[in-house]
Amino acid sequence: MKIVSYNLRKHAAGHELADIAATYDVDALCLQECDSEMLPERLHHLVLADTTKTNRLGLAVYVREDRYDILDTKVFAVQKSVHDRVLAPANERLLAVRLHDRQTEEDVLVGSFHAAPLTASNSLRRKQIAAAHAGMRSLAADIPSVMVGDFNYPWFIRGLERHLTTAGYALSRSSEPTYLRYKFFTGYFDFVTSTGFEIQRVDVLPRGASDHRAISLDAELAA
Question: Can you give the pTM of this predicted structure?
């Protein structure tokens, strides 16, 4: 399953989506910081599975129409940060989609996730990640699951990995930084968590109009 995840920076990179879908032959395109009202229903071979409706910085998932049946979608709220409470309600931080793969006859879960910004603590973000995984499992407890997006977690990654391993999830990161807004500050913000999938590597795509670079990965069902 070819998955691309992209934080659009308040939809500034929205015009790039059609080219990304076609150029990288994407199976699932997961978006953060998108404007749901500006998203087309289709991008080449991809169909819009669902979007958040109330978030100022929205989430969306597109899937390959000729391979996957969309069985269920759900938006999940997680713990709010101070940033969320002061600036705008943005506690809907996971959009999960249950798919049936007509090629393998397997059901899989794909999630687009956006954690609280750096003004929040790593402890809160770990709680948000755990709540998002619980939300994914509530759609289907025992099927392969992959969650991608902007985790806003550039430091102390080993601690996060230990928490995820204990919970049964693997963490995958790109070999290059994904956040490039400032010359003096770059970082690894966009991650992948998975269970039931094998992910050999996570690549970064060329920089576009966003302050994040999109990440691309191949998720194969674990033997």
Answer: 0.94
